[in-house]
Amino acid sequence: MCGIVGYIGDGNAKDIIIDGLKKLEYRGYDSAGIAVYKDGKLEIRKRRGRIVNLEEAISNEDLQSGLGIGHTRWATHGAPSELNSHPHSNADNTVAVVHNGIIENFAELREWLSKEYGIVFRSETDTEVIAQLIGIYYDGDLLDAVYRAVDKMRGAYAIGVICSKEPDKLIAVRKESPLVIGLGTDCNFIASDIPALLKYVRELYLLENNETAVLTRNAVVIYDAERKSVKRDVLHVTWDAAAAEKEGYDHFMMKEIHEQPKGISETLNRRLTPEGEIVLDGISLTKENLENFNKIYIVACGTAYHAGLVGKFAIEKLARIPVEVDVASEFRYRDPFVDDKTLFIAISQSGETLDTLAALREAKKKGARILSVVNVVGSSVARESDDVFYTWAGPEIAVASTKAYTTQLVCMYLIALYMGRLKGTLSKAECDKYIGELKSIPEKLERILEKEADIEEIAKQLYKTEQVFFIGRGPDSGVSYEGSLKLKEISYINSFAIAAGELKHGTIALIEQGTLVVALATQDRLFEKMLSNIQEVKARGAYVMGIAKEGNTDIEKQSDCVIYIPDCMDEVSPLLAVVPLQLLAYYIAKLRGCDIDKPKNLAKSVTVE
Ligand code: G6P
Asked: Which secondary-structure segment (H or E) carries 432?
């Protein structure tokens, strides 16, 4: 959500910034802009829509400069217009600002700036308030003006600032929204996320909350809130730029679907000894801790929340501890029963989702122990947790999450098994059986990927549909929610997921001749019940696509088409059952001509409430 790139050095800021912004496209945006310092002035250019619009607009302009900031905006305050796009500047255009996040007291500050200083605002944004504040405080010292402005601001933000009166520096501030600093030779960078900088640098600083960085061509100095300089360890990025490229696939989403076997193996290998023992290095959960917990909350958003739904089944079944799963935006405002007997599990791919982070803080304040399942190393959720279980899926670029989900599921199974063993609710033999199953998943998943062409054929018959229902029971119901989300996210088809047994209590009223129902029937013990639910919708004219385990061919009698997944234990079937649904959503979206990796209105990492 919103992307920032800034550059200071001997290179051409414009090209470096445009290139970096393109790498951040996955975050979601609806306009783009750039400001560079040239001939004593700040030159600001903005365009609605994709970065290429901006690129084309400035392609013939001589904007050669060694200092600049750029931004992709995901509209919050004001429509996605050119006027509201970043960078924003102060009254005399000497200060330019790019900003991620929200300034909560912006209306108040806007009024104050208008009344006291006669500022006439040119946009509806909260960001312009920052530029105007820095402008009025500027008195020959940009850093000082930034500190004074920040002092007035409430909210969550990451900002980049340049000033035509001090063209030897680029200033960045972080509060809640992520910001990294790239350390080059005779040049330095800022960005909202690492992929933007990988082409240029491998050494980075991660800016912490309430820190301000002053970047010059040859140095980076980080200051804390009290303006004392702080030391920071250099983070050396080991994953290569190719990990953030499409490698021949048409879309990142398809590449990431195909990376799932590898991601799952990696997640397992990091946590299993060659003998198959689960090792939770760096996670200090003891038997006593577990016995102390009387409940677990799993809290997350979007796809991560759906991983939590399956996690609940796994933990309750294997470790026999009651689990509640909640969406983070609800959890934080409903005064939940949290105390020091609560284990709070946050699941987040990015580790920066504001609602998840806020829920985590709420739980921490009330004494809960915090365990997080996170993909991005060093992210805010990871840093604020007592224990972190990394998913090791590698960078996920497509907005619609795929490999993050399946690796999150693996983590939830490992946590459940570990807890089950620690508590004694699971025998060694049973645990070994589950581990064996998990280890067989990558190969089974490859076998589903081989059926890609079959799923594409099914998609060809179904892509014009305007309404889809996903149904399932037990862990399959969690997968139904994820399948439905994937479809609506990238194909914009109205889809709805519901526990199959609940269908008859209202939703079945919507089933009519030709309505598409995707029925997940991968649970052996619930298979017959599912067949009855399928019959219920068939009787009302539904077109049914069944998902079942190989061998359960009875489903063919009630379904119009079936995709089989390899046989596996019921508990781990979500790891396989979700894959045909990811592929179905992908092909349907492709046939409908949708922008698969960058769906409209969506952002990869949602850093606002
Ligand atoms: C956004 C993304 C979803 C994601 C959700 C949670 O809405 O578009 O794909 O599932 O945020 O993100 P997180 O990074 O916390 O897993």
From this structure: helix 428-449
CB 381, CB 372: distance < 8 Å? yes
Distance 323 CA to ligand 1 centre (A): 21
Active centre residues (catalytic): 2, 604
Residue whose token pair is 């060809």 = 460
Q: Is the CB of 304 under 6 A from ligand 1?
A: yes
Nearest CA residue ID for atom 3, ligand 1: 302
- d(CA 108, CA 337) in angstroms, rounded, equals 35
The whole-number pLDDT of residue 6 equals 98
Please report the DSSP string for 509-565 in residue order.
GG--TT-EEEEEE--GGGHHHHHHHHHHHHTTT-EEEEEEETT-TTHHHH-SEEEEE
- What is each CA distance from 374 to 117, 121, 390, 485, in whole angstroms? 45, 40, 5, 20
- Look up the pTM and report it: 0.79
Q: What is the DSSP string of 386-415?
A: SEEEE-------SSS-SHHHHHHHHHHHHH
Mean residue pLDDT of the chain comes to 93
φ, ψ dihedrals at 498, nearest 5°: -150, 145
* Sequence-distant (≥ 6) Cβ neighbours of residue 216 within 8 angstroms: 8, 168, 169, 170, 188
CA of 496 to the centre of ligand 1 (A): 18
CA–CA separation, 179 and 352 (whole Å)? 11
Categorise residue 176: left if φ over 0, alpha if ψ from -120 to 50, beta otherwise. Answer: left
Query: Ligand 1 within 6 A of 604 CB?
Result: yes
Q: What is the distance in A from the centroid of ligand 1 to the CA of 347?
A: 10
Q: Find, among 11, 59, 340, the residue nearest to 199 by Cα.
A: 11
Whole-number Å distance, alpha carbon 301 to ligand 1 midpoint, is 6
Tokens 């029971």 belong to 473
Whether residue 356 has its Cβ less than 6 Å from ligand 1: yes
CA nearest 99: which of 210, 173, 43? 173
Q: Is the C-beta atom of 379 inside 6 A of ligand 1? A: no
Q: What are phi and psi of 295, to 5 degrees?
A: -160, 160
State the residue for tokens 């102390």.
292
Residue 239 confidence (pLDDT): 67
Lowest mean pLDDT among 78-82, 329-333, 439-443, 464-468: 78-82
Measure the CA–CA gap between 604 and 27, rounded to whole angstroms.
Answer: 4
Would you say the CB of residue 372 lies under 6 angstroms from ligand 1?
no
> In terms of Cα–Cα distance, which of 420, 424, 445, 425 is closest to 278?
420
